[in-house]
Specification:
EC number: 3.5.1.88
Radius of gyration: 16 Å
Function: Removes the formyl group from the N-terminal Met of newly synthesized proteins. Requires at least a dipeptide for an efficient rate of reaction. N-terminal L-methionine is a prerequisite for activity but the enzyme has broad specificity at other positions.
Keywords: Hydrolase, Iron, Metal-binding, Protein biosynthesis
CATH class: Alpha Beta
Catalytic activity: N-terminal N-formyl-L-methionyl-[peptide] + H2O = N-terminal L-methionyl-[peptide] + formate
CATH architecture: Alpha-Beta Complex
Order of helices and strands: EHEEHEEEEEHHE
Structural class: alpha+beta
Shape: globular
Protein name: Peptide deformylase
Number of helices: 4
Number of strands: 9
Length: 196
């Protein structure tokens, strides 16, 4: 089932997600719905807060990025077929010199900006069968994971921009939070009080 993606301004996007257990109700169904929602919106990652759930769950499928001809063969191969569910994830370490890459977000449509991130991460997480993993990722793979991880920490990519950039984007972000935007996927916008 395709779920609505919550827009910038929804309080759930600012909450730190809670850890979940194997007892979480209908988890397999939720994960299946999240995949369907993400693919419908042409995303490469989706976090539970983006569908209104303040829990530590996100998923990533970077296969669509692997077609980018501007990437090295090595990057294309790393991205192709990378599909994972991350439950109760914790980034243990971020290393290397920060680098810029243009990012966007399904909760913040039509805004893309260069964001600085470290190139390598070590992350511990549980997969959808609650098996524990600790893995190290680098390059674009690390970046996509960092972006989704930020969502379960209540952080948006726009938080990482300079104060000047934030001021320049303010009116566009306000429009998104008021639903004054056209997208080709289901969205849910914050409740706007009348007269504001």
């Amino acid at each position: 089932m395709i779920l609505p993606i919550v827009a910038y301004g929804e309080p759930v996007l600012r909450r730190v997600g809670k850890e979940i257990t194997t007892e979480y109700p209908k988890l397999k169904e939720l994960i299946s719905n999240m995949w369907e929602t993400m693919y419908n919106a042409h995303g490469v990652g989706l976090a539970a807060p983006q569908i209104g759930l303040p829990i530590r769950l996100f998923l990533v499928d970077t296969t669509p990025f692997s077609d980018d001809e501007d990437l090295s063969k090595e990057d294309q191969e790393a991205l192709n077929g990378f599909k994972k569910v991350f439950i109760n994830a914790k980034i243990e370490e971020e290393t290397g010199n920060e680098w810029d890459f243009n990012e966007g977000c399904l909760s913040i449509p039509d805004i893309r900006e260069d964001v600085k991130r470290k190139p390598e991460i070590t992350i511990s997480y549980l997969d959808e069968d609650f098996k524990p993993h600790t893995q190290t990722y680098d390059g674009l793979l690390a970046r996509v994971i960092q972006h989704e991880y930020d969502h379960i920490e209540g952080v948006l990519f726009t938080d990482k921009l300079s104060s000047l950039k934030k001021r320049l984007l303010k009116s566009r972000l306000d429009k998104i939070s008021k639903g004054k935007i056209s997208v080709d996927y289901k969205m849910r916008f914050p409740n706007i009080k009348k007269g504001r």
